[in-house]
Amino acid sequence: MRILFITSSRLGDAVISSGVIERIRLAHPAAQLTVACGAAAAGVFARLPGLERLIVFEKQRLDGHWLSLWSRVVRDRWYIVVDFRGSALAYGLWAGQRVIVRGGRRPGRRYAQIGAACGFEPPPLPVVWTAPADRTRAEMLIPPGAPVLALGPTANWAGKIWPAEHFIALARRLDFARIAVFGGPGPAERAAVAPVLAGLPGAIDLVGAVSVAEAAACLARCALFIGNDSGLMHLAAAAHVPTLGLFGRSRASEYAPAGVQAAFVAAPGIEGEAAMEHLAVDAVHKAVAALMGEPVPA
């Protein structure tokens, strides 16, 4: 029995789809799973139990990536095909069941939209998959000790990024003994994080240093995650870390973190248009207290 999941090219969207994938996997424990996704999202599925194939495909001119993907999966007979990208590809495959998840058809949280499209009510929360090796590395990077504050000061575009000086001021106010700073690979991520690391000497620098599964294992060792709307934010919530997402020029109504203890705080103004620099440190500090069940600062 083979099941095909066609999911996102982005880390955050891939994490959002993980709860449905896990629910289907658990319902068919003997199934051989194939996941097709973009390179940035591939690490989300590296430890997926039952994974037979991980197909990485990237956008090509004239939608050539769909033809390329079709040529790699058309010879198989699929028990289920779940297409989170809303394409027509599934209709060109042998499949006993097809689920096409289209965006924007239902109001509300994206993870709930996906769950409803797949027939799950209530919708399953996102999950992470890690291996013993990931957890061992995480323990080396974040050894036992005082609680750790995790910060995610990057995002895939500038309109989502809270100013570095605000992260520094908040971290000092929260007064954790240990701080871990997360970010993805590449010079852009390193440049975005550099001011935060400079302002928080002694912080654990995990920027570009870990795989997605290792990042999830590291996050699971933290007491609190605060970060911009990003793949890391969704990964933290899925790892069951108390997670506070920071929103400005993105839609919290759809993309707020989904987890057992997750919340968001948004910059004042119209959703999707508010400037992140207008999100005050005081407002975030109060949101942290509310999330953690502590007295809200005056």
Provide keyphrases for this structure.
20% strand, ADP-heptose-lipopolysaccharide heptosyltransferase activity, Rossmann fold, 298 residues, six-stranded parallel β-sheet, 2 domains, alpha/beta, five-stranded parallel β-sheet, 11 strands, single chain
Protein model, in words:
This protein is α/β, with parallel strands linked by helices and about 300 residues long. It folds into 2 domains: about 1-115, Rossmann fold; about 130-290, Glycogen Phosphorylase B (Rossmann fold). The chain contains 10 helices and 11 strands. Helix 1 links the parallel strand 1 (about 1-5) and strand 2 (about 30-35). Helix 1 packs parallel to helix 3 and helix 1 (about 10-25) runs parallel beside helix 8 (about 230-240). The longest helix has 17 residues, at about 10-25. It starts with a strand and ends in a 6-residue tail after the last helix.
